[in-house]
Hints:
Blueprint: H1 7-16, H2 20-24, H3 28-60
Amino acid sequence: MKPKKEAKYALLLSAFIPGLGQAYNGQYGKALLFFLTWFFILLWPVAIIDAWESANKINEGAYTKAA
């Protein structure tokens, strides 16, 4: 018999970090999927802002390539 899981813990863990509640439930593949999706969505605004700032620097002649 599998040990019972506390639904409220799964809920709170996933509210803190997406995928953490699934990991608590032993659903590791689903946990990884939710975590990576959340992680990349967080990076999207950073990529947008970086593209805008880089274009402005290029137009001003102040752009230097990163190593």
